[in-house]
Fold Thiamine-monophosphate kinase.
Amino acid sequence: MHSESSPLGEFDLIQRFFKAGADAMRSNDQKMIALGIGDDCALLKPAAGEEIAITSDMLVAGRHFFMNANPELLGRKALAVNLSDLAAMGAKPIGFTLSIALPKVDAAWLEAFSKGLFAIANQYSCPLIGGDTTAGPLTISITAFGSIPSGKAIRRSGAKVGDDIWASGIVGDARLALAALRHEMNLPESDLKQIEHRMHNPTPRVELGMKIREVASAALDISDGLLGDLQHILNQSQVSAEVFLDRLPKSETLQKQSEDIQNQFAASGGDDYEICFTAPIDKRDAIDQISTALNLPLTRIGSVTKTAGVLEKLSLLNKNGVLLDETKSAALLKSFDHFVK
Amino acid sequence: MHSESSPLGEFDLIQRFFKAGADAMRSNDQKMIALGIGDDCALLKPAAGEEIAITSDMLVAGRHFFMNANPELLGRKALAVNLSDLAAMGAKPIGFTLSIALPKVDAAWLEAFSKGLFAIANQYSCPLIGGDTTAGPLTISITAFGSIPSGKAIRRSGAKVGDDIWASGIVGDARLALAALRHEMNLPESDLKQIEHRMHNPTPRVELGMKIREVASAALDISDGLLGDLQHILNQSQVSAEVFLDRLPKSETLQKQSEDIQNQFAASGGDDYEICFTAPIDKRDAIDQISTALNLPLTRIGSVTKTAGVLEKLSLLNKNGVLLDETKSAALLKSFDHFVK
């Protein structure tokens, strides 16, 4: 009936691109999904002793991605950034809902977008279980669900004085790619090629999140900038920290830039989707083993401290262990704010 | 730190309007929420033997509501339409996430919006547990969670031949109000006053959904038009139906209109947020008792049938029990399609 009123109406569109992708995944081992797409609600049937982790991210065209962004990469990234939040709690992905506003029904765009989306969904065994589709300015809103043994989620509030502070992978490359694409700076084509994937195609650290559940005291994913995000841990754990700027893990490409650019992009560039976590110092060996097992660098960048009389203070040290001055420090601690241009 | 970069930046905004509202509800009896707003994920701790119902709805300015819509009513409606989906499965609300794109930080708008949002959240004991806030064209994306004993969800697929078809409340008034506000028709001011709340301030039938869990064979909420939505039940249950047009429950205000308008708006007006459900005929007394207990009309509008050789056919009968002709019938069966103007 709907096809009579429009050659490719809302219901056909959902059916063709999203339900097909969801159905193709039914055979996966998602025992926790009692009912997927197609009813008023989806139904999750949690395993005994498991909690459900829930995260939501909204991506807006012109704000989080360029209007003409490659739709396949966009589909990948839209889900990946949500899986990154699940990873930061140590959760195993279960499924996700997608609500999407589309300016028009563009079959080629939708095909590419859903290809990217379901590539990540398949890779992490995280099927689409519901959502909404409407006309409107291009906006992608995903809510993702993960499973985690009761009481084992890694919260932001658990950092203890004396803990090491760790960062996974490398930081700053997504910001460097953005700077080049926005023509804020000149970057050789070969350098851009090296790092561009870090902006367009981030890897959610799902395996890492599950593995550090037993060793980390606090964790979060780095989306708005490493040091700005780290401060959420400090605030919620009511502790301070010392971070050594020169220990921030950077790519060879970023290391070709000036020290100021290196520090700025690594410290507060954002869009990294790495995990920053804290752990007691007696877990260093265990963490090094996890790093080896995953073939993923895990770098100690500083320590959790308690500044007498001052709460939740993040102190930045240069390579000689000397405190940075306030102005320099403030610039590096700034998180990305979506309402400030 | 964020307040240095902007007088009212993203984090302050979340804190001020949404986290405050969420915190105010912490004292409620939401034992299923292990962790609310403020970390990478929220954590639900389902009760033993309970499934989690999940639904997502996206509302776009200029499409689902007027740009200058009253923000308090908008906040109410944005959550209410999601609770309506939970109700249609028979689920008890647990909590919701809100992702919202805002063109600018408008404190007065946000205050009114969150007032309406939390009024509904409080009324149904359904706290905000997470979400996302960003700059962008005004778009509201909510995912709501409900709890339901395992296997007890009312699915669309359970209708059986011989079942009655029921509708709650009245239908068509939201469409009548829209027609008046769009100046498609002239409606006396006093009539508009009578019915406007049906468009701006729908009541999710949460209590009804939970009460009909034991009697209904299938259910859904009426959002895109009663008969169009009913066809989802027919499709998923692989049955047909006969519906008596003159039995569709209409307000006195709608009954002042021509018979054609009455039928069109009641049958396919949309935005009703009532529940359409099927139930065996031996449940009529039980359903009448539910109606009395909730002081909510529940009306039998037709029957589930099996048309030999024809699947999933919805036949419309006039008040003399005579079949409507195909053209008239097709017009009344049309659902709202968000991509057809």
About this structure: Residues 156-332 of chain A form a domain with the Phosphoribosyl-aminoimidazole Synthetase; Chain A, domain 2 fold (CATH 3.90.650.10). Confidence is low (pLDDT under 50) at residues 1-8 of chain A.
